[in-house]
Amino acid sequence: MVRVHGNALKHGLTKEEVAYAWENPIRCRQRNGTDDPPLWISVGSLPDGRFAELIGFMDMDGAWCVFHALVPPTKKFKRELGWR
């Protein structure tokens, strides 16, 4: 299950687009740091073929909570993922 936080929508994507991108990753990994719960970063594919940068975590119910989504992914974000 994917829960989409309202903050993930502030750049114009819909809840459905954010959830789709989270469920269709091109590349993802756990972010370095001491966050609890651990944060995961991902570049996911949208239904129209664009890529979105995403940040989320697994909540206490075992559902993914995505709180950041941006199109297109920034160079800094892609570097953090080791992609391009």
Task: Tag the structure with descriptive keywords.
single chain, 84 residues, alpha+beta, five-stranded mixed beta sheet, 2 helices, globular
What fraction of residues sit in β-strands?
35-45%
| Number of β-strand runs | 5
Count of helical stretches:
2
**Helical residue percent?**
10-25%
Overall shape? globular
Topology:
Elements: E1 2-4, H1 15-23, E2 25-30, E3 40-45, E4 51-58, E5 64-70, H2 75-81
Parallel strand pairs: 1-5
Antiparallel strand pairs: 2-3, 3-4, 4-5
Précis, in short:
With 84 residues, the protein is an alpha+beta fold.
Commentary on this structure:
The chain is an alpha+beta fold. It has one domain. The protein is built from two helices and five strands. It has a five-stranded mixed sheet with strand order 1-5-4-3-2, with helices on both faces. The longest helix is centred in the N-terminal third of the chain and has 9 residues. It is globular and about 30 Å long. This is Toxin.
